[in-house]
Specification:
alpha+beta; FAD/NAD(P)-binding domain; 5-stranded mixed sheet; 5 strands
């Protein structure tokens, strides 16, 4: 099982199959009273990733138990740090004020609060190996993404899909579970590790390195490089494709051309004055 992470809190434990899989077995998602049922997979955490994994696996004929320690939904907000003084002075008041100011805000004052409001100043970025023997992690249990990029929900759903595709057959006794977990782990690392590395690097608020300055400045000056930047920022391509030699050469040429055009203009400006 896994430690919980806010907001997704989804981890998946894969259990060995001990009995024949009955034809047309109903997912435990619709039979919560069947505590003694023989499941293929047990999922800890009914967050976005955990729930998605449960549905996708059940659709593939896997008998799933979905466990959740909470019975009520939760919400969270991520304001910037200019609100930090009010946040520290009155946590609950600043939360209510923030929600009231939202466009088409929900009626927060008439809502029933069922848990206390918990605040934190920093949101750490954690990464785990996607699998261990008999266990796989999805969503925030495997990797917590920086909220600035707005990719956490997408990564949660993607990791649930990758897991279901990789282990559904093995979980029902039609394949090797360890090999299937390896397939999931490799795909998870290949698709997300590079993006997570760059997001964590940005979170340190360090000055841009020469490679970043090269690409960002060229994207501001050239439509082709800008489209390439869009594909990367939208997570449609990974870092290796984003920084391939052809694109780096074009970005360099764009910046050299821009500097060459800027020098005569600056010279004319000085002579004209």
């Amino acid at each position: 099982m896994t430690r919980d992470h806010v907001p997704d809190r989804s981890g998946t434990a894969l259990l060995p199959r001990t009995a024949p899989h009955p034809e047309g077995a109903i997912s435990p998602l619709t039979k919560p009273e069947s505590a003694g049922y023989d499941y293929d997979v047990v999922i800890s955490g009914a967050g976005l990733a955990g729930s998605a994994a449960a549905v996708l696996l059940a659709r593939r004929g896997v008998r799933v138990a979905l466990l959740e320690r909470r019975s009520d939904p939760e919400a969270y907000k991520l304001p910037d740090k200019k609100r930090l003084p009010a946040f520290r002075e009155d946590l609950e008041g600043s939360f209510l004020e923030f929600v009231r100011a939202l466009p088409e805000a929900p009626p927060i004052d008439s809502a029933e609060r069922v848990t206390k409001i918990i605040g934190t100043v920093n949101y750490p970025l954690h990464s785990r190996k996607p699998t261990a023997p008999g266990v796989a992690f999805v969503g925030d249990a495997a990797l917590t993404g920086d909220p600035l990029w707005g990719v956490g929900c997408g990564w949660a759903l993607q990791s649930a899909q990758w897991l279901a595709e990789a282990i559904a057959s093995a979980a029902t006794g039609r394949g090797d579970l360890d090999r299937s977990l390896g397939v999931y782990a490799r795909r998870h690392r290949r698709r997300l590790r590079g993006h997570q590395y760059l997001a964590a690097d940005f979170a340190k608020a360090r000055p841009f390195n020469p490679l970043k300055r090269l690409m960002y400045s060229a994207a501001a000056r050239d439509e082709s490089v800008a489209r390439h930047m869009y594909l990367f920022a939208s997570r449609l391509i990974g870092p290796l494709r984003f920084l391939n030699p052809v694109v780096l050469a074009r970005a360099t040429a764009v910046n050299i051309k821009h500097r060459g055009a800027a020098v005569p203009l600056a010279h004319l400006s000085r002579t004209g004055s």
